[in-house]
Amino acid sequence: MAEHFAEPVRQHLYSLNLGPQHPSTHGVLRILLTLDGEYIVEADPVIGYGHRGHEKMGENRTYLQFMPNTSRIDYLSGLLFNHGFCLAVEKLAGIEPPERARYIRVICAELNRISSHLLWFGTYLMDLGAFTPFLYCFDDRENILDILDRVSGSRLTYSYCRFGGVTRDIDDVFIEQTRAFVKRLRSRWKDYHNLVTKNVIFIHRTRDVGVIDKDLARRFGVTGPNLRAAGVPFDMRKVEPYEVYDRFDFQIPVGEKGDALDRYRVRLEEMEQSCRIIEQALDQLPDGPYRQERVRLKVKPPRGEVYFAFESARGLTAYYLVSDGSPYPYRCHVRVPSFGNLHCLTEVFRETLVADAISILGSIDIVVPEIDR
Amino acid sequence: MGYWKDIVVGGWSLVEGMKVTGRALFKPVVTVQYPRQRLELSPAYRGHIELKVFPETGTHGCIACGTCQRVCPSGVIKVQGVKQHARGGKVATHYVIDFTRCSLCGLCVESCPTQTLQFSTEYEMEGPSRWDGVVDLVTRMEESRS
Ligand code: SF4
Ligand code: SF4
Questions:
Q1: Any idea what the CATH number is for the domain that residue B85 is in?
Q2: Does the ipTM surpass 0.90?
């Protein structure tokens, strides 16, 4: 193949638009492919179709009014984004939430992480042509949505966190349902492995496909499960523990090669680790108020700036807020993981087959509205 | 040898997968046949906002202070009120929401000083026009009482 690409004059090149409405682009992403037969010579992701101006909106509304926006930046892990924003503002304004609120947030955030990974599991396999696993994991995911719906009132865009607490307390039914869910999910691993992980077609479509190694990941700022699949145990929950993550015993799963199969394995293992965190948090859950006495409707942080990084379902996410002492942030920037994850594809796609490109694109788990924001 | 092993192991993996799907055939159905069957709504369910009727007064408690209007991130709420007596407080006469723009964040409900807002439990609110989302809550409350 190498000599094939070394041809000085490429006469048979042609362009193909992957997207913006392709079912496996998960949102509105367009990738301009230059093809030589079935092989990709160049890939050029075109982003920005879903731009809604969230950062600018953040500068035009109070800190609390930006809260509903955060869950719309990445709609699959809305609660994680709520949580991160809440922590950033709390750090900036010096608000201390009660212990119970911290635990509630961690439990809900981990549930949200599992739901995001489950959805990825389903849609990725759908990209590869398997429809059945999608139905199984949506069955499981529905349980999480029901649990979160009971406490937060929404199923996707939660707006559950508030500065200094959460909107509603959790009760015994929640705890019971969550424990039952963790048990159920554990009993499902066997089915998932039998159905997918051992499946010969799946293995052939993912092994050694789309290798993102350490070096490439570092150059493009790839984070999250994609980086961990390359063998780098980098997770904000361990590296810079925020909230109460330092009180739990959990591992950071890592892969070896950084191919699509490793990314798949890392994500499945991460769900198991999230289950462990949830169980420990439920065991340690303290009594007390679920939010501060006085509800903060208008926070006026002192002049200053904060950069707060946390681990969303897709990788290192961060809020950068600058305060000029008014109730409105002077600058509100969001660092999203999918941007780096997507742009390393310009390198990874080179010299792969178009069919593999779909597999790679699915395996890195991008959420395009998050990039466009 | 590796070639044949691949075929046998690969073939067996497909059989294993089919077993999982086969077992699922005999499991109970998990989907709900909406609209013939309905689920119980979550106690925290967020529909559009509505005015609470307090049994002591028989009416809502909105004093048209405009806190909810100011706190709403999406500009959903327009509230107007008049003073009914020379020395009394204001009472809302119009409370218009444009539900099509509501992001269901709950900030208005949390911020109301008289706690007269709550989420309704309506969830079938489709309509052919965007004006179907514009509701006057005071009128709505009066209609529901009569
Ligand atoms: S729920 Fe949020 S968006 Fe809707 S009316 Fe209330 S404050 Fe506005
Ligand atoms: S905050 Fe409450 S009392 Fe004030 S205008 Fe809104 S509904 Fe009426």
A1: 3.30.70.3270
A2: no
